Amino acid sequence: MDVELIINGEEKTASIPPETTLLKLLREEFYLTGAKTGCDVGDCGACTVLVDGEAVNSCLMLAGQLQGRSVETIEGLANLEDFHPLQKNFEDLGSLQCGFCGPGMILSAKQLLEENPEPTKQEIQDAIAGNLCRCTGYTKIVEAVADAAKEMREEP
Amino acid sequence: MIRKGKGIGCMWYPIGFTVAANPSAATVKVNEDGTATLLTGTVETGQGSLTVLGQIAAEELGISTEDVHVVSADTDATPMDTGAIASRTTYVTGNAIKLAAEKAKEILFEVAAPMLNVKPSQLEAADRKVQVKGFPQRFLPIDEVALQAQFVQGQPPIGSASYNPPTVDMDPETGQGKPFSTYVYATQIAEVEVDDETGDVNVTYMAAAHDCGTAINPMLVEGQIQGGISMGIGFALQEEMLFDEKGVQINPNLTNYIMPTSLDMPDIDVDIVENFDPTGPFGAKGVGEPTAVPTAAAICNAIYDAVGVRITSLPATAEKVLALIKEKNEKDIKQLSPAE
Ligand code: FES
Ligand code: FES
After folding, report:
1. What is the residue range of A25's domain?
2. Which CATH number does the domain housing residue A49 bear?
3. For residue A104, what is the domain's CATH number?
4. pTM, rounded to two decimals
5. Are residue B40 and residue B89 in the same domain, yes or no?
6. Pocket of ligand 1 contains residue A39 by CB under 6 Å
7. Do B46 and A44 touch (CB under 8 A)?
8. What is the ipTM score, two decimals?
């Protein structure tokens, strides 16, 4: 089947078998390997991307459902000059270790900050609760999201 | 009813292998532009070890960490390293790197000494310069010295070294020996809330004081401790591999093998206890595995403080804690009832 969609602001088309997941489409058709295959069954959040601004587990979504919709992946966040404030604050605080959870973590946080520019610590913890991290204990991740929120409020 | 409790867990933990050889080797070369290249066989898995190892080389050579280019984990090109295990990288690999950088520095000093009219022993390396001790205004930029060493003296400033922690085998008769070259120490305090009607345990706070020698990179040390605490909480309360009688794991997914999420993490205060280990690179020891060690003990002691039951097998799931609370209540009632 054919699917037309927007990925990181660019129109794309692909011809794929109907059982292809969004995660497979991103990684294997478009070589956008930022979204990670952790469990492939919706448990870990490593594959999180934004579909029409909403964080989804891309391993659970069929690519066919994406017709005409807009997908944002971690590759779409930074430009050649600048990191996204979330990425910058994650880097400054050493929030990630192995980094496997990072793309999903940052995109879940991005959705949160778009909906709630001044989240409490509890709200940040809630927003990333579906993104498992084996390395960091989440502490510096939560701090970086709070710092990024502050930065984005100050210079929108 | 929610009952609160506090508990303490203390530990020591050895760095490196038990007596067995676990060497690291390293090569450091100072380039003619004043940067340095470090070759190490160890691998970065996110803990930040290559940053710390680069810092060690930079400190020894008196240059900035950004000036050190680290080449790692390529068995074709890098010297042997036992590996990123046994909490040994900062200590064992770090010592090898410090020794290698020292050798490269000695060549720089030999070359710079006649240029500055002093003996090599009167020189030190700091701020990208080779300078006379006590007279920092008499100096040569390190790139100039490296260039001179390489192309005029024909003595490229390269150092290679290895380090194997000194140990003494245990005497089979007395059990005496020195199985490790150094140890790290830590104390953690947990605060928990236990629901005595469901057995559910919630860790609300954790204080963690760790002596890892000199903290070469405090931010990374903190990250290791926070990560270790999340692993310790999983160990204490959630994580368990279950097998059927044929040995097949019955909970192979993250929906039934439960590990901590962001919601399971308490507020954490990390206290890095400054200490200098004379055998470590710039006084450093290590911080990897020990961070996971005292967490479960502190939590179990806090559970005892809250509801008076001793956990003797992990994880302390709600079912297990509730069964122990019921058992204790029955015993207490029996003791209270008058003798027949
Ligand atoms: S890979 Fe999609 S949730 Fe784990
Ligand atoms: S940094 Fe390793 S899983 Fe999050």
Report:
1. 2-76
2. 3.10.20.30
3. 1.10.150.120
4. 0.95
5. yes
6. yes
7. no
8. 0.95
